[in-house]
Amino acid sequence: MADAAAAAPRNLLDAVPGLKQVGLLVGVAAAIAAAIWLVLWSQGPNYTVLYGQLSERESGQVMDALTASGIDFKLNPAGAIMVPEAKLQDARIKLASQGLPQSDAMGMDLLQKDSSFGTSSMMERLRYQAMMETELARTITKLQGVESARVHLAMPTPSVFVRDSHRATASVFLQLYPGRQLDPGQVAAIVHLVASSVPDLTANDVTVVDQSGNLLNSPDQSPEAAATNRQFAYTRKLEDSYQQRIVALLEPIVGPGRVHATVTADVDFTVAEETHENYDPKNTAVRSEQESSDVRTDGGAAMGIPGALSNQPPGTTGAPALPGASGPGQANAANAAPGSAKTATGAAANGAPGAAAGGATTATPTENSSTSTRNFEIDRTLSYTKQPEGIVKRLNVGVVLDDWQKVGPKGKVTAVPMSAQDIQRLTKLVSDAIGLQSSRGDQISLINQRFESGGPLPPVEQPPLWERPWVLQLAKQLVGALLVLLVAFLVLRPLMKSLTAAGPKRAAGALGADLAGDQLTLSGQAQAPAIKLAPSFEQQIAAARALVIQDPKKAAQVVKDWVADG
After folding, report:
1. Are 304 and 311 in contact (CB under 8 A)?
2. pTM for this one?
3. CA 34 to chain centre
4. How far apart are CA 336 and CA 508, in angstroms?
């Protein structure tokens, strides 16, 4: 009887139909599996995007590298590779050490490909152009602030005709990192980098555009406008330099944030060239001297052009000379006035023709001449001066200082105005520091004025609690634990309760069936029908005791049901 009572709970499922048994088993298994999955999900790491928008070739290379490094990863439906958040930086460093991800386009690798025998010159030229574009893009990407770059080259076909020749042009597209911006110097560096890498390409034919569609350079800008922008940038840089020097000088004295300075510079960008040549007449020296002397004597010799009749003294031509007759010269001398006679005598003394008509002998005429030439060197100074552009003509400086901050005995801070001596001393300090010159009209104005403070700075706001990384992980664990409890109490518990709710009644029915199954047969009458005997009171008491010992809860439930029915 005790064995029958012990076997009764094991046969409880025998009374349940087969379909219901299968449903209960499937439900229990699903609940257990869901609980296990929730536990694993809550304890699993958070995955974040490592790289997105990669090509299939790059994605394969990255996944192979992650597998070799032992880093778990996932590939979401959008094609992005995801890794555990705790290993994000480690994965990026390992991939960067291997040069991944790299661009899908090929640069110098194109030249390593085997070129077929039938490749045309046009294909070779296009391959060279693609290689140049890719290599320039890779170089530009190395600059700080540039995430990616693309270069487009327009290289015309060379022509032997001058009128058909065209210059090369280039366009550069830059993808900058969020919050980054290139200064004009970096843009100019990119322009000159591209222009210097391509033959027959000038800087004016290069265009640079960012991801927002902003034109970063102005290749069509006139030289005058470009010079104006350059001069304005130089002036602003010069003024900022003076301001920073003033603030850096006075902040340690007055206190951080208690100095405001403004500098206005008048800069002359005129380019002047001057040439000066000076002579000093007091400083002279003889460079060269030349003297010549000429003495000429007239001794009756023929002079002049050889063969000329004028070189001979005048004689009688035509009629013969008569004795006692006077010649033409004598007649002229006799008929002349006394003054004229004196003049004629002087002419005869000088050797005039016809003066020896009377046959008198005169002195030989002589002519003397001398020439002297002296060259002097005078002290001369020749100077060539070219004034550079960007000369500071005048500086106007304005400085405002806050009051002195005095700390009292109890730690209380009070503001004390500056004295006239302090202002004068600080003015002299600033003037000497930035090199003010009164000769060119520089001015400085330094005043003391109490600053209006806006109160203490508010504390830095912390990010919301739900945006912190550890909160998400804790929330996952809490949600997982809650779902496990819900599965246990809402699925497993009702299933188990449905199996054990009718246990006492079915146990009692099974016990009666077992007791009724006891049969007594008469000896020698094996073929006689079995006689069923009702269990005795002692047997029922023993079965009840066994049931109470085996499952006290069920026995208590049976007693409660009896009391409720009574």
Report:
1. yes
2. 0.43
3. 53
4. 204
Query: Which helix (H) or strand (E) segment is 239 a member of?
Result: helix 223-254
How many Å apart are CA 419 and CA 19, to the nearest integer? 102
Calculate the alpha carbon distances from 45 to 87, 94, 463, 474 in Å. Answer: 10, 20, 22, 11
Mean pLDDT on 1-15: 46
Torsion sign across C-alpha atoms 465, 468, 470, 471: positive
Q: In Å, how far from its chain's centre is CA 564?
A: 87
Residue tagged 């004068």 (tokens) = 424
User: Residues with Cβ < 8 Å from 500, sequence gap 6 or more?
Assistant: 12, 554
75 within 8 A of 82, measured Cβ to Cβ: yes
The whole-number pLDDT of residue 136 equals 92
Distance CA 173, CA 155 (A): 17
Count of CB atoms situated within 10 Å of the CB of 153: 19
Is 504 within 8 Å of 557 (Cβ atoms)?
yes
- CA pair distance 327, 11, nearest whole angstrom: 199
- Which distant-in-sequence residues (6+ apart) come within 8 Å of 89 by Cβ? none
d(CA 110, CA 133): 12
Contact 200, 156 (CB under 8 A): no
pLDDT digits (tens, 9 = 90+) for 520-546: 443 444 444 444 555 666 777 777 777
Q: What are phi and psi of 378, to 5 degrees?
A: -105, 140
- The residues pairing with 398 across neighbouring beta strands, listed in sequence order, are 262, 445
Spatial distance between the Cα atoms of 281 and 475, rounded to a whole number of angstroms? 102
Residue linked to tokens 């060379």: 158
